[in-house]
Design goal:
One of its GO terms (molecular function) is dTDP-glucose 4,6-dehydratase activity. It catalyses: dTDP-alpha-D-glucose = dTDP-4-dehydro-6-deoxy-alpha-D-glucose + H2O. Its cofactor is NAD(+). Keywords: Lyase, NAD. The protein has 348 residues and is of the alpha/beta class. It has a domain of 235 residues: NAD(P)-binding Rossmann-like Domain (Rossmann fold, 3-Layer(aba) Sandwich), CATH 3.40.50. The protein contains 12 helices and 12 strands. The protein binds nicotinamide-adenine-dinucleotide and 2'deoxy-thymidine-5'-diphospho-alpha-D-glucose. The site of 2'deoxy-thymidine-5'-diphospho-alpha-D-glucose has 19 residues, from helix 6 and strand 8.
Length: 348
């Protein structure tokens, strides 16, 4: 039986990865380590909570002694590391929190893996989940490939770039068997409503303004979260050690066009007159250091591992909207309390 540690498994992407591993691999013992910050929520994985091959551990990856003890106790065979501070806007107001979790936290996991695996790396793997933001910003042309030079612009992307470098350095220096993936923007169920898609769904439901940063011409490459979880499963099992794979949706949208599509789909789902939700669009002050365009060249993972997205953006967005409308209690729970304070500070 393999013992697999998944960090950040109560968050958005992590919860889909945990669900996939617990249900697809009953012969693995899955340990989900999560500090349950504002972004972590056990409701996201309540459906697998009672599975015999699943254990939840509440804990902070920044606590080096705790992490060392955990690795000594469980002797994990593999690590899928997703725990992170993940929101660019929060990194602008509190950069140090991002250094602690994303850099120090990753270092603690690397040190613990290196210590317990020692020279015996057979069958072991450290999988670091990263972002396309480490590559910086594209102009109108071109795509990020695995060999694009790192050029991060926000405290968030700088902290993720730093953690990627440390993972690679542990591979080169100590022979740690690692893989890294750099993925584009995810959307889908269980997404905390501080990011564009879930925030705007929440605001449309509540007839609140849709705060589009700057001129709305910024471009992102969107991927349905379950397709990301499938790619992570594939890379964990079939990716080559010491390699990086870019993951993306082949799906670029300018923010304003995405928001208009979302408004149209929401009007239909909510039985509103066509054009009703678009009236909520409000242009607001731009994000400082806002990256103009991200777009991933995912041909390596496509050619080498046969992965490609399984849904179109229109299908994925529709499934996402349906999930939020069917899970209003989840939305209500995560938007009470601290969320209101965050929202006031960020937008009002
Ligand atoms: P998220 O913010 O939804 O979840 C992060 C999870 O990590 C939460 O459950 C939180 O409680 C946990 N966590 C935070 N700090 C911790 C700590 N110190 N110790 C233990 N747990 C801690 O993030 P997400 O959007 O699911 O992103 C997951 C990973 O994927 C991140 O590494 C992120 O950089 C990367 N990524 C995200 C996207 C995206 O579009 N969301 C795209 C590419 C890559
Ligand atoms: O590219 C991958 C990254 O995608 C991940 O690494 C990050 O963890 C994830 O948060 C996401 O980062 P972005 O900054 O691209 O996502 P966000 O949803 O915050 O913003 C998407 C775009 O929408 C961006 O151009 C900023 C804009 N935006 C965002 C918010 C929250 C708005 O115009 N208004 C908003 O209120």
């Amino acid at each position: 039986m393999k013992k697999i540690l998944i960090t950040g498994g109560a968050g958005f992407i992590g919860s889909h990865v945990v669900r996939r591993f617990v249900t697809q691999y009953p012969n693995y013992q899955i340990f989900n380590l999560d500090a349950l910050t504002y972004a972590g929520n056990l409701e996201n994985i309540a459906d697998v909570d009672k599975s015999p091959n699943y254990t939840f551990i509440k804990g902070d990856i920044v606590d080096a002694d705790f992490i060392t003890d955990l690795f000594q106790q469980h002797q994990f065979d593999g690590v899928l590391h997703l725990a992170a501070e993940s929101h660019v806007d929060r990194s602008i107001t509190d950069p140090l929190a991002f250094v602690k979790t994303n850099v120090i936290g990753t270092m603690n996991l690397l040190n613990a893996a290196k210590t317990i695996w020692k020279d015996n790396f057979e069958g072991k793997r450290f999988y670091h989940i990263s972002t396309d933001e480490v590559y910086g910003s594209l102009g109108a042309e071109g795509l990020f490939t695995e060999t694009t030079a790192y050029d991060p612009n926000s405290p968030y992307s700088a902290s993720k770039a730093s953690s990627d470098h440390f993972v690679r350095a542990y591979g080169e220096t100590y022979g740690l068997p690692y893989v890294i993936t750099n993925c584009s923007n995810n959307y889908g169920p269980n997404h905390f409503p501080e990011k564009l898609v879930p925030l705007f769904i929440h605001n449309i439901i509540n007839n609140k303004p849709l705060p589009v940063y700057g001129d709305g011409k910024y471009t992102r490459d969107w991927l349905y979260v379950i397709d990301h979880a499938i790619a992570i499963d594939l890379v964990f099992h079939e990716g080559k050690n010491h390699e990086t794979y870019n993951i993306g949706g082949f799906n670029e949208w300018q923010n304003i066009d995405l928001v208009k599509l979302l408004c149209r789909q929401m009007d239909t789902k909510l039985g509103r007159a066509a054009g009703e939700s678009e009236k909520l669009i409000t242009y607001v002050k731009d994000r400082p250091g806002h990256d103009l365009r991200y777009a991933i060249d995912a041909s390596k993972i496509n050619k080498e591992l046969g992965w490609k997205p399984s849904v179109t953006f229109e299908q994925g967005l529709e499934k996402t909207i349906e999930w939020y409308l069917a899970n209003e209690e989840w939305l209500r729970n995560v938007t009470s309390g601290d969320y209101q304070t965050y929202y006031q500070k960020q937008y009002l």
